[in-house]
Amino acid sequence: MGWYVTRDGAGKVAGRFAAAQFEGQEYLEDGATDLVAASLEDSRNLKRAAIEAAYQAKLGLGLALAAGAPFNGKTLQVDEESQAKIGQIFARALAVQQNVAGLTWPSGGFRWRMADNTYLALAVPDFIAMAQAAADYCAAKFYQRAALKDAVTAAADQAALDAIDITAGLA
Predict the structure, then answer these.
(1) I want to staple 95 with a disulfide (CB 3.0 to 4.6 A). Which of 26, 45, 100, 144 is the partner?
(2) Do 17 and 43 touch, CB atoms closer than 8 A?
(3) Inter-residue contact 31 to 44 (CB < 8 Å)
(4) Other residues' Cβ atoms within 10 Å of the Cβ of residue 67
(5) Residues 129-149: pLDDT tens digits?
(6) Is residue 22 within 8 Å of 50, Cβ to Cβ?
(7) Mean confidence (pLDDT) of the chain
């Protein structure tokens, strides 16, 4: 059996895992002269970094919206910057829906740029539905990431740490 390893800046093994956790890891067979046991805390830190990278990658893929009008199966960008923008326009949509004086919505719908760089013109209820779908999706990923990080903290040994499946945890 061998290990997937990560090296520190000096080239020493800084963490080892039974399975590849992220790109750039080297595979070493047991007994390799430079395969030294990294501390469990070092391995935890590497696993946390891998979880964060996988979380950001998952958000970067976007949220596939429902087929048919008004979303036509488009993918909504839900990275952290997009989430903030969605939240801002969501607040406006709610205020317009409640007839707050002085606030309007474009008559042809608010044009929102999708992941494929096309625009959808959304009426107030449609934008609210889209924002709610994004909020639900992002909240689910946030709590999945938190559960993975909690499992890393609770891992009693390297085997328990290796058993944490990031891909399944962020499904």
Answers:
(1) 100
(2) yes
(3) no
(4) 9
(5) 999 999 999 999 999 999 999
(6) yes
(7) 88
Three-state DSSP class for 52? helix
Q: What is the 3-state secondary structure (H, E, C) of 88-136?
A: HHHHHHHHHHCCCCCCCCCCCCEEEECCCCCEEEECHHHHHHHHHHHHH
- Number of other residues whose CB lies within 10 A of the CB of residue 51: 24
CA distances from 162 to 15, 17, 27, 46, 167 (A): 11, 6, 15, 11, 13
Q: What is the pLDDT of residues 98-113, one digit of tens each?
A: 999 999 999 999 999 9
Q: Are 134 and 142 in contact (CB under 8 A)?
A: no
Other C-beta atoms lying within 10 Å of the C-beta of residue 87: 12
- Report residue 74 as tokens: 């488009």
φ, ψ of residue 28 to 5 degrees: the values are: -125, 135
* pTM of the predicted protein model: 0.78
Q: Which residue has the tokens 């740029």?
A: 113
